[in-house]
Write a structure and sequence with these properties.
The complex is a heterodimer of chains A (248) and B (336).
Chain A (H helix, E strand, L loop, with lengths): L1 E10 L2 E11 L4 E5 L6 H9 L1 H11 L5 E9 L2 E2 L5 H7 L1 E4 L11 H8 L5 H14 L2 H4 L10 H13 L5 E5 L7 H18 L2 E6 L11 E6 L2 E7 H6 L1 H8 L2
Parallel strand pairs in A: 3-8, 3-9, 6-7, 7-8
Antiparallel strand pairs in A: 1-2, 1-4, 4-5, 9-10
Chain B lengths: L3 E7 L1 H5 L9 H24 L4 H27 L6 H18 L4 H20 L9 H20 L8 E2 L7 H24 L1 H11 L1 H6 L4 H27 L1 E2 L7 H13 L5 H16 L7 H15 L4 H10 E7 L1
């Protein structure tokens, strides 16, 4: 469904992604694991097209030169040069790192902003779906986003991404700063999204243990290159992976 | 297909001059000092070069006055994070105070100007104090409103000469004092501020710009830091005003004109924000440009705005940022 070939991203002379190729099949969950500075966020920015936007902004203010190489296919079409909003239109939706919800809008408004692309009927359906998925949001519908707890904000961010009717959902470190209980809720929610809607999901995380049970396929990133890939079982059996990403 | 990428690399000379090796040879020293010395000498020799065109000699004074205002704006906006739309507030206060000291109290020029600069800075800081603890747009709004407010007060109460302004302000002793006072002080402010923002206290101010909560958490009082920064900026602004009052031998409501707020901001945009020297270069371009365009009458504003907009769209980084990059780095294509 989503395929990326030989992605290379340079921030000035520093290489952030080095020949990364990845495939996400229809209806599967792909996990991407790596420590800080492994290139997870850059990969997500590249897949969702945000990198093109950052690149343009840096160019205008005379900052770092960002160079992007590689090819991205989505549903058999080449989307390499599509802008981020065009990618969102065809169904590649990013739920960014650190949530980036709109702190001064209420929960309801946040969700409505996410549904900008969908028609009224769909919006209603999606809203019901999101509130079913994360019932906690129901209690706070009219509270400002900035006053929610970290976990609730994360649910809201995922909900907002779902409102755009994604075909593939990119979750960038959804477990960042969450308690184990909330991690559990978010992970179960993620699995539920795939099960009930058949949406493909790419999920990045530093610590693999909470995520590994739900993934079908995983990649390990180190210093910008993909050093290992395999199905869940293959990753779990690998001794290096075990020590580095499971804390065993 | 072979992929090529443009690479940006520091010049070897630049890397060498970062350490103690800077003083190892004349070439390294010239690399460091060259641009600075060239700029200083060029500015200092301006009055002599322009001896041939007396009208343009007057423009030097205005150019440097705006340069000082632009430095003050650049410092506040890019090092402290306070967007000040009130250059006119500083010039007005400084100019009127200097005129008052000079005509009402009979102080000579060499006393009234420093007194007005210092007194004006204190007064401006006190008047701006209420909005300093706040974050956001409030400081910009308040600085924008004060000049308008004071203009109306002077008009309505008919104090300080009312709409006619205060005449009979002493002039500066002679033409060369006029030129070199403002040139030397603008150079002093420029290099002084460059040094100041790289001291420890300058780092704290930059911290205030980036994240004031973290600065507070480090045990530093943010408001007093801002008070100090506003004092420094208004000190420079008030000097410009006091100087202009003596230059024109008159202090009037036009010292509160919006020009003194807007042109410095435009200069900073053109020169490149956060470089300080860019602010000076920007006003050295913009002020003569607006003089040149005087021939077009009111149409000059149109040309002026189009030029500014084009600049923001096509080279929003600013002249100085661009030049610095070209000076310190080179580019080449590399295979990946």
């Amino acid at each position: 469904m989503l395929e990326a070939f030989d992605l290379m991203v340079f921030y000035e002379n520093m290489i952030a992604l080095n020949n990364v190729s990845l495939t996400c099949k229809e209806g599967s969950i792909v996990g991407i694991f790596g420590s800080n500075s492994a290139g997870k966020s850059t990969l997500m920015y590249t897949l969702s097209g945000i990198i093109l936007d950052i690149k343009k902004k840096e160019e205008m203010k005379g900052g770092e030169r960002i160079t992007v190489f590689g090819r991205i296919n989505f549903d058999g079409k080449d989307v390499t040069h599509l802008k981020p909003h065009e990618r969102a239109k065809i169904g590649i939706v990013l739920c960014p790192e650190r949530r980036r919800i709109f702190p001064e809008s209420s929960v309801m408004e946040n969700l409505k902003i996410g549904s900008y692309l969908t028609s009224g009927h769909e919006t209603k359906k999606n809203l019901e779906y999101v509130l079913d998925l994360f019932p906690r949001l129901k209690d706070h519908l009219h509270r400002q986003g900035g006053f929610l707890s970290g976990g609730e904000q994360q649910m809201l961010a995922i909900g907002r991404a779902l409102m755009a009717n994604p075909k593939i959902l990119l979750l960038d470190e959804p477990l960042l700063g969450l308690s184990p209980a909330y991690q559990e809720i978010v992970i179960r929610g993620t699995e539920e999204i795939r099960r009930s809607k058949g949406i493909s999901i790419i999920i990045t995380e530093q610590y693999a243990r909470p995520v590994i049970p739900i993934i079908d396929f995983g990649y390990i990133l180190e210093n910008g290159s993909s050093v290992l890939s395999g199905t869940r079982e293959e990753l779990m059996d690998n001794p290096d992976v075990k020590s580095a990403y499971f804390g065993v | 297909m072979e992929q090529m990428r443009k690479e940006r690399v520091d010049r070897g000379l630049k890397v060498r001059t970062e350490g103690i090796y800077a003083i190892s040879s004349y070439r390294e020293m010239a690399y460091l000092l060259g641009p600075r010395l060239f700029f200083i000498l060029a500015v200092l020799s301006l009055p002599f070069i322009l001896d041939l065109a007396p009208y343009w000699k007057r423009v030097i004074n205005i150019m440097c006055t705006y340069a000082i205002l632009a430095i003050s704006f650049d410092f506040l906006a890019n090092y402290v994070g306070l967007v000040c739309l009130g250059g006119a507030f500083f010039t007005g206060i400084g100019g009127y105070l200097s005129a008052i000291f000079n005509t009402y109290l009979g102080m000579p020029v060499y006393l009234s100007m420093p007194a007005a600069t210092l007194g004006g800075a204190v007064l401006c800081t006190l008047l701006l104090l209420p909005c300093l603890p706040l974050r956001g747009v409030y400081f910009a709004i308040v600085t924008l409103m004060y000049p308008l407010l004071i203009t109306r007060v002077i008009e309505a109460l008919n104090i300080f000469g009312g709409t006619n302004g205060m005449t009979g302000v002493d002039s500066l002793p002679n033409e060369y004092v006029e030129h070199y006072l403002v040139i030397l002080l603008s150079l002093l402010f420029l290099f002084g501020m460059r040094r100041f923002v790289n001291q420890d206290i300058g780092l704290v101010l930059r911290g205030v710009k980036d994240n004031d909560q973290s600065v507070r958490a480090s045990g530093i009082d943010v408001t007093s830091m801002k008070v100090m920064a506003v004092f420094i900026a208004s000190f420079m602004g008030c000097f410009s005003g006091a100087y202009m009052a003596h230059l024109y031998m008159w202090a009037g409501l036009s010292l509160f004109a919006l020009d003194f707020s807007i042109i410095p901001i435009a200069s900073v945009v053109i020169g490149g924000g956060g470089t300080l020297i860019g602010a000076v270069i920007g006003s050295f371009i913009l002020v003569p440009l607006s003089e040149l365009l005087r021939a077009f009458g009111t149409f000059r504003i149109v040309i002026y705005s189009v030029a500014l907009t084009a600049f923001i769209v096509f080279k929003s980084e600013g002249i100085m940022v661009y030049l610095q990059r070209k000076y310190h780095q080179f580019e080449r294509w590399v295979k990946i």
